[in-house]
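Just wondering, does anyone understand these tokens?
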Amino acid sequence: MKLPAVAFTTAFGLGIACGLTNAIENLAGSPVFVGVIFAGAAASLLIGFVLSYFQKVMAAGLASMACWALLGLAGACLGQQPRRADHIVSLASAGKINLKTPLRYFGRLRDEPEKLPWGASYDIELSGVDAEGVRVPATGGLRVSFARTGKELAEGRVLHAGDSVAMLTRAKLPPFYRDEGAFDRRAYLAEQGVDVVGTLRAPELLELIAPARLSFSGLVARGRRRLREEVDELWAGDTKVAGVVRAMLLGDRNFVDRDEAKDFQKTGAFHVLVVAGLHVGAIAVVLFWVGRKLRVARVFSVLLTLVLLLAYVGVVEQRAPVLRAALMAAIVVVGGVFFRRLELLNSAALAALVLLVARPLALRDSSFQLSFLALGCIAGVAIPWLERTVQPYARALRGWRDVTRDVAHEPRPTQFRIDVRSLAQVMEARLPARIATIPGTLMIGGLGLSFRVWELFVLTLALQVGMMPLLASGFHRITFAGPFVNFAAVPLTAVIVPLGFFTLIIGLLLPAVGKVLAAVLSWVVLALLHVVQRFAEVQKFSYRIPEPPLWVVVTFLVALVGIMLCLRVEASRRRIVLRCLIGTLAVSGAIIAVCPFAARHAAGALEVSVLDVGQGDSLFVVSPGGKTLLIDGGGAFGGFPGQEQPRGSDPGEEAVSPYLWSRGFKKIDVVALTHAHQDHLGGLSAILENFRVGQLWIGREVKSVALAKLESLAREKHIPIEYESKGKSFSLDEVEGQFLWPTLSDDSGVAAKNNDSLVLRLKFRDRTLLLPGDAEKQAEHAMLAENSEDGLHADVLKVGHHGSKNSTTEEFLHAVSPRIAIISAGEDNPYGHPSPELLERLERSGARVLRTDRDGAVHVVTDGTQLKVSCFVACPETATVMASGSAQVPNKNQDKQQ
């Protein structure tokens, strides 16, 4: 079967991929270059027409493919055009506005205010900003969050999509972790149209300038808001079910518990929580089935299905998986009007082409890649294989008693029909006439159910295997539970989605009946959660791995595409090639799943990386022989006392783990916790979950719920716990480690303090590094009294307590005399770290200062004589620190992530 849409979409996608390479990115902004590309596309199209006129079909096809590839290249160039001069980020970069001070922003609400577990958020399409008394025109998107403290926006000031508003807030660029392998949240939000973010301190700072005129988009937005409110009303007493229902029906995952979401990820069933093909398909099938049952004319049934699908897309917002699934459903439904059974691969390719033409840069989105890879696995592997094996026998069961229909089937399915009839006749002959047909009916029903179960297993297995390389590369997870969990998850989702919308509609019209239906739906949702949780508890079904090498992923995908092609040619021509491709796929898949590659580190040298984990600490040490020590794991800022902000990011999962995976590490010999404060402790739970850990080192045992949970998790994972204190020492290959603080004491009933911090001094040949955690001046004075200057001197100092003015005193700094001082602090953190006083002291000392909030992760490598320092973002200066030289550092990633 020919697949023209697949060919053209592939060419268009390859053109976009070329446009995203570094070589083309530098030329993307040139109008002349873009014009040359369009001229080449036009020439290719003309050549194609000429060749087709002379019946050179193959050459004409190649010319057409070249045209599509050039159009894709042009689309990528147009998608990478620089921001407008009046864009909010451009204005800030040019110094026309100062994002470090509160400003008055003007704009229009893009959507209804979005409810969050701890408050609400507002997305604003900017029109201007007041800067120094002057109204500056501005474009771009601002997302403002408002933490409810028992005080809602006053009645009568309820905002709606399209309202013109003014807001006084301090906006900033979205924070993200500047580490290798970490998720770029800033780029992700920019793709969603969110360029700056802010916090609304009080409801009075938000002013309604003018209400929106009622429009179709406004009505859709209000309808979406009303449905979300209806979910809260129907499941007011069960937040767990309400969160899952909001996610599965309306695409809002804000209320899904983090542990529950992790269980769905572990079992390979996370697609259930993401509104995509499964959900849209369930809606489309039910709508079409209802139209057929009501005996509505085919054209009207199709029109009704398309209209309601459009409404559904509006309700769950225009996200890529939803648009893709809706487009495919629409193509299939419209094809049915002309009594055409459309090829699924062509339909998927056409949907992809429409989405890429609208937004070429969607090609690099992981959701886009996963969506169409999943479709390729289903349409290119599972369905053709089932067509050649199981489905002929499943079709043979239709009208199995009718002998005249035997000739409509192939020989083997025909023989199957005859055997089934013969067996049924034998059973019927031994039973009374009134019940004689029952065994045959039951047998056929059982066979039909078995075929359907096998088809579902093959589909989920194809998905699980085919998506393995992208899931391993992007999410660092291998799961074997998917084919089994989806036996329950897929059918339950097919029930939950249509029943859920029916419940919401009935609940709006008849609240009492809606409550009854909501109770029924709760049982179905709880059944889904129970299945997922039970499989998630089996640890061997899921584990985390580093990112596999690119060549393995490419080999796997090439073999997968080859299998898709082989399944579409005659068996006699494909058998040997198919077996070779399946073998290649199996070997490369096993390599991805096991990831037997050694971690990357500087052999014979000591490495210390101070990672960017926001307002927190995390340091990774690698010895010359490859032994590893992770000190702290960062932890999200949870708000000030009385103003907690839960559900923040997890640096251990989002920054530290991806960094370690990017370097190929699967095991950590030692994890050390300096002290039990959230910004050091919070990310370590994810580390113990994601890696094989040899030991856990802890300083003083203090009263801390979070520390108790971490120790409990370590015992559950059979990780030995050791308590370290002043005077103890250790070695990692040739690296000598010494604990300078704290003193050994029984503080188990006392809350954690900064001066509890483990202070480590690492010495490798002639070079030393001092890592004081959050130790403040009290601990520093004690260390000064107990150690000589030689005992405290270090070439590299990780500045204590994130650059607080109460740490790194003048006397302590003089004793250490560092050449390089590294500050770990969060960008625009609420504490004002690093302190200006501390920065002045460091400047007077002559130390080269590096900061994670500005330079990203800082990497120090020493062979015992030289010190080489690099940064994730451009470091301030370029050089190598010699044994007798001053502290200067080279750039690692020039201008990266600016």
